[in-house]
Amino acid sequence: MSEILRCENLTKKYPNVTALNSINLSLESGKIIGLLGPNGSGKTTLIKLINGLLTPTEGRVLINGKAPGVETKCEVAYLPDNSYLNSWMTVKQIVDYFVDFYADFREDVAYTMLNRLGITPTTRLKTLSKGNKEKVCLILVMSRNAKLYVLDEPIAGVDPAARDYVISTIINNYNPEATVLISTHLISDIEQILDEAIFIQNGDILLHKTIDEIREEKGKSVDELFREVFRW
Amino acid sequence: MVKKLFKHEIYAYLRTIIPMHLILLGVGLLGRIVQFFENDSTTYDIIFWSSVVVFCVGAVVCLLLTLIFGIRRFYQNLFTGEGYLTFTLPVTETQHIWVKNTVAVLSQIASVLMIIVASCVITFGEVCVEAFKAGGYLLKIAHEECGFHFFLYIVEFIIILYLALSVSFMLYYACIAIGQRAKKNRVAAAIGVYFIYYFITQVLGTIAIIIFDNIDYEVIQKVVEWIEKNPFEFIHIAAGIAFVLLSVFGTICYAITKHSVSKKLNLE
Description:
The structure holds two protein chains of two kinds. Chain A is α/β, with parallel strands linked by helices. Chain A has a single domain, classed as P-loop containing nucleotide triphosphate hydrolases (Rossmann fold), CATH 3.40.50. Chain A contains nine helices and nine strands. Chain A has helices at about 45-50, 70-75, 90-100, 105-115, 130-140, 160-175, 185-190, 210-220, 220-230, and strands at about 5-15, 15-30, 30-35, 60-65, 75-80, 150, 180-185, 195-200, 205-210. In chain A, helix 6 links the parallel strand 6 (about 150) and strand 7 (about 180-185). By secondary structure, chain B is mostly helical. In chain B, helix 1 packs antiparallel against helix 2, helix 6 (about 150-180) packs parallel to helix 9 and helix 8 (about 215-230) packs across helix 9 (about 230-265). The chains are: A alpha/beta, B mainly alpha.
């Protein structure tokens, strides 16, 4: 297994708070990894650093051996935790946009998933419901044949049926040789698909183990351990 | 990738400015049709002058909306939720800024050209022909007076005009880029930054006037004499100074914008 993501002494400080505190992390290819932590633990900051949306205060992040930049953006598929769509576009226009910019975008896969949802290419994005907008965002990301998928809270704020849809879309469409990094605090919904879990709190990595190691060593499910570790 | 950025940026503009241009053209055409019913009645005068006023207001609105759209597109595409997609495209920040700037400037020029075309439509006939004749006559006189310098002036004018438009957009971008670093009310913060810039330029202008007022009269006299002896060279030098000043100011604005989007990005 090759290393897809490496963080070395990665630190991000804001004027009044340290969001990430000199973390070291190494993720291998071909895994589904949960980035788990309560709100404000540093999950989104780490994800933004991976995507080059923030610059580290200290340390560095490497994707496939390269610092975030044009090259890594060709390899990373990112789903932010809020809508990034140009609302005036139609579904076809946003698909064409992805086709134009991402060489790894699978147009046929995207349209198959959109058809299954009953979303036609001529539909304007602004006419879609919030739930369908989120699904379109996920479809666009998972239609890429990326090396690293970074999904920030993909199941937060959606109903249980939609969560099942999101999870099935992820496991049915990701490139098996790639790594999927899923940030969430809703552990029980995604535990069954995870290979590894990373616990993060106040900008520190508390734990990084495989799911089997957690179950064997702690004798608990990831959800149970999460509740124990992050109990108020 | 730059070609693709241009393609999508131009499309985003066209869907807004083409309907606006067609409306302006329609207003110009209506104004011309009104003139076919020319008579001495007060009703005609009211309708005619109303159509002229509507056309003039339409032309100003067209220019203003193109300017606002250029600024809004930069802000919305880079600093709101859309920024999450924009900045994760395999494109550099430099390419984003320059593509947006170039298309904004070209759309402003397109709006000016459309106003000229619509003006030709509303004045089509004798007035339009006379205006073109007068313009042609003035250009001919200028060519006879200036010779080869005339062509250089045209080239310099086009360059300075383009540069001035580009720098003005870059100034707005820099204000937005600084404003987006505020925690709340980022648009208000950007407007605040612009007013601070405006205040500083007014102060500097006043200081420049005071300095100029205190220059020795003999020095001014010598400069004026030199200008009188070398009028053609003076215009070239003035254009050169304008070019340098605009380039320096534009570069500063670009550096601020680039630094903010690549190092201090603060997406909503």
